[in-house]
Amino acid sequence: MKEQEHIVKSFEEELEAISTKIAQMGGMAEAQLAAAIDCMARRDIALAERTVAEDRHIDDMEREIEEDTVLLIGKRQPLAVDLRQTISALKISTDLERVGDLAKNIAKRSIVVIGDYETPARLMQGLSRMGRLAQGQLKSVLDAYANRNAEEALHVWRSDAEIDEMYNSIFRELLTYMMEDPRTIGACTHLLFIAKNFERIGDHTTNIAETISYLVTGEMLVDERPKSDQTTTTALSALRENK
Amino acid sequence: MRTAQAESQTETNGAVMNEVPVSSHVKMVARGVDVFYGAKQALFGVDLDIRDNSVTSLIGPSGCGKSTFLRCLNRMNDVIDGCRVEGKIELGGQNIYAPNVDPVLLRARVGMVFQKPNPFPKSIYENVAYGPRIHGLASARNDLDQIVETSLRKAAIWDEVKDRLHEPGTGLSGGQQQRLCIARAIAVSPEVILMDEPCSALDPIATARVEELIDELREGYTIVIVTHSMQQAARVSQRTAFFHLGNLVEEGETDHIFTNPKEKRTQDYITGRFG
Amino acid sequence: MSENVMTTQAATSGFQTDAALARLRRRKMADTRLKMYGLGAIIVALLLLATLVTSLVITGHSAFLQSHVTYPVYLDPDKIDADDPYGSNYRSVVRDAFFALFSDVEGMREQRNLADIISNGAPYILRDEVSADSALIGQTIEFSVPLADPFDQFVKGSVKRGTPEEDRLVTDQQIAWMDKLEADGRISTPFNWGLFVNADSRFPELAGLSGAITGSFFALLVCFLISFPTGIAAAVYLEEFAPKNKFTDLIEVNINNLAAVPSVVFGLLGLAVFLGFFGLPRSAPLVGGMTLALMTLPTIIITTRASLKAVPPSIREAALGIGASKHQVMMHHVVPLAMPGILTGTIIGLAQALGETAPLLLIGMNAFITSAPGGITDPATALPTQIFIWADSPERGFVSRTSAAILVLLGFLVLMNAVAIYLRRKFERRW
Description:
heterotrimer; A: mainly alpha; Methane Monooxygenase Hydroxylase, Chain G, domain 1; 7 helices; about 85% helix; C: mainly alpha; MetI-like fold; 2 domains; 17 helices; 3 strands; about 65% helix; about 5% strand
């Protein structure tokens, strides 16, 4: 259903520009995330450093989008779908900027882990898998935004459970490692943070999914987001018992 | 502090707006209203409820019939030659087009404020006192003074004119004149006030004052306002009705219509996509 | 430097080419021509007006002065009855006192020639003076009496000594007497108040316009009282209440046509209906006023409708919106606001009626009336008909008086129009 164009062309163009910038920013966030996962898997310090440096472009983009939306609201007083679209762009850009920051953080910690410690391959594989999941969520949600598809967005919204499950298991594994061999505490702590960052990225993609659903349907999602993260309640005693 | 109804106060841009709950009591009912100008039909089967103690706004492009519908509510269309109104319009349960209804009395219950401020070329006092006098609401000087002062206070213009009540009404600024016209309409204690694009001839400050006034008046009166400005409708009204080509396309809560309207035509109009 | 850029741009854009400049010149000349035509038209109109007024002034100015002779008159108590001063015979009192000025006049014929000098109305003038103040009886007063018309003309220079005696009304002997009176300083030429205060008379020196002015006043009053309310009511009905159908259109067309009907037709109507059918008194201002009302009515209706139309519909809507009934809207709002226009139209209509002659002639307001009318049913003349009567009279004095009367009529018209303009300016509204 092709939307009819605005009578004022410049309004149409301004709305388009913001959408385009969100897509661009999404692409940049995707690239950063891919680079962070890569540098971890391939133990590439140079890539990691480049990734850290690149993050400022995402920050610049967020500022741009913020300025554009503020101007649009002030100038055009958008209503209905235009209003929802503008507010959504503002919220999504915030989430994408956080994703970028988290990817940078992952790259930074990777530098430390790669450089200083020998980490078991199994752990790195698990983290990579988690990273790919997050990557997949991000790609799906950005596609949903491009297509303005609420169904796709809802799918992403419900799939967050998977990442949470993965996080739970990695969390337990790392705790086990740390309890077994205190020399690994240093490395495992960083790996813990990296895992947490992936999980946070997943949460941000579900935020974006909620925003997209509101954008398309005009209704806020009122259901509880499916959360499977039990790490906040995992007690050490339980782990000891498992062992 | 009202105790009977829950009152909440919300801060909006530093100004405090009282939230009077919208009564579900319906003040005026329109069913199947058709209006003809000669052979040409201007309104097609309009069904609309006007709720008590709330502001209902009628929006739509030029020539869509919103002003025509507004003028049906106080039978001002009667004075237009060749204008025929069919269907039912009820005020407080009574059909206003019944043969035994006197339009003159109806217009005391349903007042009107026009697009271009049109005070009588008389003194400010006389402008406001005229209505009560001809309807026999007051004849003694004291009573009239009382009514004039109350109406001018309610219209938020008393302080500006209290020292020059006997100067001509036409000597005021545009915004003041419009508030004077509102005071004049209030003076006969109507139940409903109709406003036909009341701010379109006013500057932004005067417009803001009138909008503030409308919000205050909501407590005591039912208001129906025709407006070209989407933002004004969004700011001022609780319910909005969208007209297009003589049809009532969509009607609902203002907040809903302006964030997520059901009909595509409504959305196209309010976002400026009308071709 | 910038000029070159400008002219180059202008040249390339086509405004400075020769053809363009020639076109511009032609257009300016056309402007000037139009202005000249307008100016020319105004000048022609003003010249005509000036010619008219000048010729009137030239012929009529002498009528505003009236020559008098002043001489002592003994009010003999034997001849004047103190109990009935009005009924006494003053003729001999006046003549004897005049003869006393000339010691060498004897014989009936010479005395008659001498008595011709003073106006025939002299006894009545003295009568009125004594009746007003009977204490004068027994005294000798200085009596001022107008000269008879031929001698008035002589004093004013229209009758010249040079013309042969057979061709003039004034004999040489009478001229000699006049010279003596002049030498004695008894001749004076004050302002002719009589023109305004006296009623009509056979004798020019005594003739005045008071009858005509009063007759015109009464006629206009009747005209106003009939046409003003009727005209406004008709206009209000047509404008506000009449349904828009063919019948109303017919009425409107007829009213507009009535305004163009020649006034003599109204006179015939008045003659046939008011005098013939209703048997109203002839020459009465009542009938004159009624006939004039018929003529003024269309004008008032048309101007009232225009004034009502000029009231902005926003005022009507405002009044209706507040719950005023149709008649309240009209009476409280529309008519008061249209009143300046209505008044202006009425005054202009009345000014036109003031100058209408033909209908008044036909209903007989050209009778010879020697006293001003006391009421609207007394016979009277009107200013235009009075002019008509005087224009027909043979006496020399009436020539100048006719022009003077026309000037008086013009004066009233200018005054009425000035009032109309003043009212319009004063009440002009800006909505």
